[in-house]
Amino acid sequence: MNSETRTAPLSAVPDQAVGAAAVHAVDLVKTYRPKGRGKARPEGVRALDGLSISVEPGIVFGLLGPNGAGKSTTVKILTTLAAADSGSAAVAGFDVRREPDKVRRAIGVVAQKSGADPVATGRDNLVLQGRLYGMRGAELTRRVDALLERFDLADAAGRQVKTYSGGMLRRLDVAIGLVHRPQVLFLDEPTTGLDPEARTAMWEEIERLAGAEGLTILLTTHYLEEADKLATRLAIVDRGRVVVQGTPDELKGELRGDALAVELSADAADELPVIGALGSVDGVRDITLHGRRVAARADDGAAAVPAVLAALDRIGLGVAAVTVARPSLDDVYLRYAGRSFSAAESTSVLEGAGR
Ligand SMILES: Nc1ncnc2c1ncn2[C@@H]1O[C@H](COP(=O)(O)OP(=O)(O)OP(=O)(O)O)[C@@H](O)[C@H]1O
Questions:
Q1: Which position among 64, 212, 296, 303 has the lowest Cβ density within 10 Å, counted as fewest Cβ atoms?
Q2: What is the value of ipTM here, to two decimals?
Q3: What positions does the domain ABC transporter occupy (predicted)?
Q4: E-state strands within the chain
């Protein structure tokens, strides 16, 4: 448990709000305060700044954000491992502050760092977890066998976990999280550090799980592609707040049209003629120029390309390349967070280094 101070108690979650949602969090605030005096940031780090989410049962809900956005802190609060300074949260209908034991029974947690005992075998790790939840005898053996089979670990079940590959260890972590048949499974960045093959296998596994037994999965990720592929709904988190939420298609659909990227054969001396020329093309808007790169949105990108090339030609600019892309989650992030995902990632890395 963390040692930071709690400035105000969590308020109870209203019952009617809890009923329908598998996870319901309102206005979570959390500040990590430095332990000693004379630290660089005496005011502490505000990891959550009024974060709210509501997750309906049976879906994969993605919490997407760059490093340092507050995803793990949210998971810690929802899984009763940390206390919020203020706000309220309920999981599987239980208040995380008032009913932490019930919450813990209802959830499985796969943290960023493996919780498996490296010197025990895969099977023993699963058995131990089951026993912690009161499972015994044939029921436990059947459950462990089924999970070993399902996660393709049956052949390695008798080996010490320290001999497992990264992908096997992650699969074991998920299996451990599922032993006691939780209603809600928390997966905190489940594919970070995995090679592409193991990542694809884990994606397939998560997709399979989501369909099974009405399990609700709350997944945190800083991979745009992962959120796009797996999440039924997602919330984009930036600096401790949800900046926008919806299905990946809804979010991308809000950005009307395609992204058009034109690389000029030479730097354009002045932005205005470029903006003027492209602005005269039907359906083309939001034009920006950085050096040789022109970016714009177009209602129908492919159809606009000939007219765009002609317009640039008229003002004497040659074109080296043109690409047309459907809106991505990165575009959504840029629109709502005001900076690109990769810029946010590098800022948070620098912030982290400065702490
Ligand atoms: N125990 C702690 N003490 C001090 N600051 C912390 C602590 N844990 C997290 N933070 C800071 O709180 C902010 C949110 O961190 P958090 O780990 O929740 O983000 P995240 O989105 O999960 O990022 P990551 O993917 O890197 O884990 C960051 O600035 C982080 O450095």
A1: 212
A2: 0.96
A3: 23-264
A4: 23-32, 45-55, 60-64, 86-91, 94-95, 107-110, 184-188, 216-221, 233-238, 241-246, 258-264, 284-290, 293-298, 319-325
